[in-house]
Write a structure and sequence with these properties.
- With 198 residues, the chain is of the alpha+beta class.
- The protein has three helices and seven strands.
- It has a seven-stranded antiparallel sheet.
- The radius of gyration is 16 Å and the shape is globular.
C-alpha cells in the first residue's frame, strides 16, 4: 500500500480487531497508482502489482501481507493503492461484496463505519452460511469512503474484504458461493479453515 495526498479510501481493520483505523486522504488529485491490469475492462486481474484503490471490484484478489490489514496498527494514513494479484496466484484476501451508501451529507466516520460493518457482516453470513462469530478462522474488513472522497469525488462505495487465514490459489469466494462453509463436510477442497489445514 502506498500513501499520499491523492484520492484515497478508508480501510477498516479486521472486525476481530474491534478498532477502526481511520485512513483518510486530502488534497488535490495529482497522479495516482495505475489501474489493475485486466483481461478486459470489467474482467479479472491479469498481473500482480499495486492498483488504484478506486479500481477495485468484487472478485478481485488482494495480498494482505502488505500490512494493510494489520490489526495492531493504530495510526491514520491514506490508502490510495492496494496490492492485487490474479486470483490464480496465492493470495489471502478477496473483495466479496459492495454497496453504495445513500447520497446526502457525509454522515461521519462512525456512521459510515457502522453502515459498512452491518452490510459486510450480512454479506459475510450470506456468503459463508455462518454468523461471523461462528467462523473464527475467517475475518473481514472493508474499504469505505473518506469525507474528502465523499464530498470531492462523490465516493459512496463500501467494499467488503474477506480475509483468509492463509494464502490460497483460485477464488475462495467462488468456492464459497458453490459450497458454503456450514460444516466440515461441506468445506471447499483445500479450505484453509478446515481442521486439517487450519
Amino acid at each position: 500500500m502506498t500513501s499520499s495526498s491523492a484520492r484515497a479510501r478508508r480501510l477498516a481493520l479486521p472486525v476481530a480487531a474491534a478498532v477502526c483505523c481511520v485512513l483518510a486522504g486530502c488534497g488535490l488529485v495529482t497522479a495516482g497508482p495505475p489501474d489493475a491490469s485486466r483481461d478486459h475492462p470489467h474482467g479479472a486481474i491479469t498481473a500482480a502489482g499495486d492498483t488504484d484503490v478506486y479500481s477495485l471490484r468484487v472478485g478481485d484478489c488482494l495480498l494482505s501481507d502488505s500490512g494493510d490489514f494489520d490489526s495492531t496498527a493504530t495510526a491514520s494514513t491514506a490508502v490510495d493503492s492496494v496490492p492485487v494479484t490474479p486470483c490464480s496466484d496465492p493470495h489471502d484476501a478477496e473483495i466479496y461484496a459492495e454497496t453504495m451508501l445513500p447520497a446526502g451529507e457525509y454522515p461521519g466516520d462512525d456512521a459510515v463505519g457502522e453502515q459498512a460493518d452491518d452490510f459486510c457482516d450480512a454479506q459475510f453470513t450470506a456468503l459463508t452460511g455462518l454468523d461471523y462469530e461462528d467462523a473464527p478462522s475467517l475475518d473481514f474488513s472493508e474499504y469505505t469512503p473518506t469525507e474528502d472522497g465523499w464530498n470531492g469525488d462523490g465516493d459512496r462505495l463500501v467494499q467488503c474484504v474477506l480475509l483468509l487465514p492463509q494464502k490460497v490459489d483460485g477464488s475462495y469466494v467462488d468456492r464459497l458461493r458453490r459450497t458454503p462453509v456450514t460444516d466440515d463436510a461441506r468445506r471447499p477442497a483445500g479450505d484453509p479453515t478446515s481442521p486439517a489445514t487450519a
